[in-house]
Design brief:
Layout: H1 6-33, E1 39-41, E2 49-53, E3 63-68, E4 71-75, H2 77-86, H3 88-99
Antiparallel strand pairs: 1-2, 2-4, 3-4
Helix pairs in contact: 1-2, 1-3
Length: about 110
């Protein structure tokens, strides 16, 4: 698909940049909390929740957004900014539309 549809290329590049930014932040959080078992969970509009072991004291900059056995899920100001500011939900939607061969208005081939 890459190189054939300009909208796909643009969306793909935007998603790559968003994921790089998110990875840099994840490394910062792991270093800050001295914990390597921190991951992102979630999908669509709840993407980029930080899943952190329950035993870790995260401080007041982290807002609890859910949990599962042994782990709590948090958002921070930065994870909240990653999602809407970059429009990742829309970018993934664009990629899925193009991959599935749908042709909504604005996506001429």
């Amino acid at each position: 698909m890459r190189g054939k549809v300009k909208e796909y290329d643009n969306a793909f590049e935007a998603v790559e940049n968003i994921l790089k930014e998110a990875d840099v932040y994840l490394k910062e959080v792991r270093k800050l909390l001295s914990v390597s078992k921190i991951t992102y969970v979630g999908s669509d509009k709840k993407r980029f929740q930080l899943e952190i072991p329950e035993s870790v004291n995260v401080g007041e900059n982290f807002e609890m957004s859910g949990h599962r056995k042994g782990f709590n899920r948090y958002t921070t100001q930065r994870t909240k900014v990653i999602r809407p500011f970059t429009g990742i939900y829309g970018r993934f939607t664009t990629l899925n539309i193009i991959r599935n061969g749908l042709n909504p208005p604005g996506f001429a081939r």
